[in-house]
Amino acid sequence: MKLNKGLLIVVLVLLMSNLVNAQANLLNATIPEEIGVKSDEQMAADNDGPLPYGYIDDRDILWSKMVWEYIDLNEKINLPFYYPADTSNIDSNRRSLYDTLLRGIRNEEIVDVYDDSYFTDRLTKKEILARLTKIDTLDEGIEQMNFGEQISEEFIDQRDIQSADIEGFRIKGLYYFDKRQGELKYRLLGVAPVSPDVNFIDEIESGDLSEMVDMFWVWYPGIRDIMHEMKVFNNKNSAYPLSFDLLLNARRFNSIIYREENVYGNRKVTEYIKANSLFQVIESQKIKESIRDYELDMWNY
Fold first, then answer.
1. What angle do CA 209, 66, 63 make, to 5 degrees?
2. Which of 41, 66, 179, 219 could be disulfide-bonded to 261 (CB atoms 3.0-4.6 Å)?
3. What residues form DSSP beta bridges with 174?
């Protein structure tokens, strides 16, 4: 009985600390500017941070499989990664996953950005931002240019990719069996926003995955602190917001495997099952079940 009481006290303390962190000084603020400003005592007691990954020795990995997955933002369970799409009237600590990544890149807090999921060709900040913007000159501007005049800004059309343009995210991760812990685990390695090519963004129909491109790939273990700081609205308890790091590492999303590590050069499912979406989904589920069954088979003698 004493143990149960002690456990209850610990849980209550953790919940209260998360409540304070979620809306710091909300009920004690005398003016709106004091909301979110923590006192010195709160800052001293605040040791919030992402749960660190444990060290995994290569000899402890009995089995592993690399998989690539697609998170469709049209699915209801994945909406926390999409919203808020409009940030004009939202607190600065609430952003979509794309806005969080883009802000980190602009502030140079996120530097491990690459061209593909193999993390070989690093992209500079200038190269990344160039992928997100399309600049067109209207017919009136072309006429000015033909007459040797300077093109007016009103005749230059600039189109930037916004959060509302993001169709989904591709993630890369490793399933591995830790023989020291005796369980199957998952480690997220990379994440990439997916959208239409900025040069044809207004010409492509929404949902056509064949026309979608990976904007950039971010090395995830290096951005966990940023993902933890940005909170996600919790429908069940607004006083206890979640973080992107928690959602991703706890796999609180729905995804479909579109590629696995294989002998055929890691080919995609669509490369050997063509023009049949149903069979492609069945193949993805088959890959998931084979990974899940491996852990169960480990305990069969």
1. 155
2. 66
3. 66, 187
CB atoms closer than 10 angstroms to residue 50: 15
- Token pair, residue 141, equals 């501007």
E-state strands within the chain: 61-72, 113-114, 133-137, 156-160, 168-178, 183-196, 212-214, 217-219, 231-232, 242-243, 256-260
Q: Give the Cα-Cα-Cα angle 282, 288, 289 (nearest 5 degrees).
A: 85
pLDDT, position 205: 65
pLDDT digits over 245-264, tens only? 999 999 999 999 999 999 99
Cβ(198)–Cβ(132) below 8 Å: yes
Q: Is the pLDDT of residue 1 over 50?
A: no
Distance CA 262, CA 253 (A): 25
DSSP sequence for 273-298: S-S-HHHHHHHHHHHHHHHHHHHHHT
Read off the amino acid at residue 228.
Answer: H
Q: Report pLDDT digits (tens) over 12-60.
A: 444 444 433 445 666 777 677 666 676 666 666 666 788 888 889 999 9
Residues 84 and 73 sit within 8 Å (Cβ to Cβ) = no
Running DSSP on this structure, what letter comes out for residue 268?
B
* pTM for this entry: 0.81
Cβ distance 62 to 177 under 8 Å? yes
Q: What CA–CA distance (Å, rounded) separates 289 from 41? A: 49
Structure confidence at residue 11 as a pLDDT band (50, 70, 90): very low
How many other CB atoms are there within 10 angstroms of residue 37's CB atom? Answer: 11
With a CB cutoff of 8 Å and minimum separation 6, the contacts of 242 are 80, 231, 232, 234, 252
* Helix (H) / strand (E) containing 5: helix 2-22
